[in-house]
Specification:
Chain lengths: 272, 272
Amino acid sequence: MSYLEKLRAAQKKNNSWLCIGLDPQPGLLPLEAQRWDEPVLPFNRRIIEATADLVCAYKPNLGFYMQWGAAGVIALERTIAAIPDDIPIILDAKIGDIGHTQAAWGRGVFDEWGVDAITANPYVGADAVRPLLAWRPDKCVYLLARTSNPGAQRFQGDLTTRRGLSADVLREASRWMGDGDGHCGFVVGATYPAELAVARELAPAAGFLIPGIGAQGGDLAAAVRYGPDRMAGPVINAGRSVIYASAGLDFAEAARAAAIALRDEINALRSG
Amino acid sequence: MSYLEKLRAAQKKNNSWLCIGLDPQPGLLPLEAQRWDEPVLPFNRRIIEATADLVCAYKPNLGFYMQWGAAGVIALERTIAAIPDDIPIILDAKIGDIGHTQAAWGRGVFDEWGVDAITANPYVGADAVRPLLAWRPDKCVYLLARTSNPGAQRFQGDLTTRRGLSADVLREASRWMGDGDGHCGFVVGATYPAELAVARELAPAAGFLIPGIGAQGGDLAAAVRYGPDRMAGPVINAGRSVIYASAGLDFAEAARAAAIALRDEINALRSG
């Protein structure tokens, strides 16, 4: 089953475009979990059990696991194994190395770990995408187009001018994406809603992974309006606002309530 | 001791600007090692023992370890621990995430693993550098300016025009580098010798990490001419041409011979 098929099935089954970012941060974990010896895996398990019927994907970010070195990566490997088989997993690693190194990443994350999609950084050019899709054309690569951080425009430019690096990436890399059948696409932050509209115009057929919702204050209405393509709905990611909804013993229930509220808000915008 | 101090001491002690890339690839490992259950760590140990008096740094690339999932990252963690304390370690991970994620990477690689420098990708802007140096100003970030792959110019532009993305990164990010005292700098591939000269012109005070020597066919004379800055020599990396110099039982001796030849070739160019 390709990434596209798996994503569509999860979006339909759970009636959801919501993705939850599984990003463990020591100081933000519930107070109870901060007392556990190795909190990451049991914390993630509780969050997954409480939300797996509400999401279209999970997105763990490699950086938050690497902060514990190899022990964190073991917890990530086990977290990936704990996610139900019918929910797509997007590994957020923003990899962007030259050809033979990208292929090594592909072997690890697609074959060893079985993740369904990975984020990549276009700075090196086509090498960021093609070795991954040559290895596994059924998987998906989400290439950074417009990141969600405040300083993003410094090198990426202002997309509303339809010029600059992000515009160039969207136009050029759309052609590379055709190499795969997993429905590849772009990362476009909801924190730049006017640029999200232009990104959809420049890459009409691409899948969109949209971060910046929740703690970063992104525009959910723009994500719902410009996120969908002809094949699937967007993957709209929220992290901290869901998984750290409560620091108390009720953290899993609070994460579930936050996920329901966000999924329902998205669905209200879809039908509105 | 800052990265700069450690690098200068190693360059002086071993009379070397050579860095060896520790990039394990299953199909390239010596035939003997391919029969071992977990070949990565013992292979790396043999290479390190055979070359530690010949190099100014080691550069393991995270992607080549991730191809074995968490088991590979454990082997990387142990490889890092096996490198003598007086040889700087540059983790090549080309990380480029937004602020709080870059800081998490910094905690892992600088504090947990004790590496001395990391490579980063400038696509997101200042977030690629500043959270790392805010966490550990004594460490070094090498930011991608010109990568060594054939398709690098597609987004990075032609540096000899002094315009385009690589030129912009070199000019702008030189200012961010001043935040640290570890002597940060740029990755500039030796496969674009004319651009290496312009990179030195645009970033006169930056440290240079120069890949592309050996198997990629980069220009060693240009690396020696434009690599040094006022504080230190460049870090000139060779990977496959050294560590896979022989597939036989003599692989460590052959790696040592290849490293001596390359170090001496660099030193002949320095004094020539």
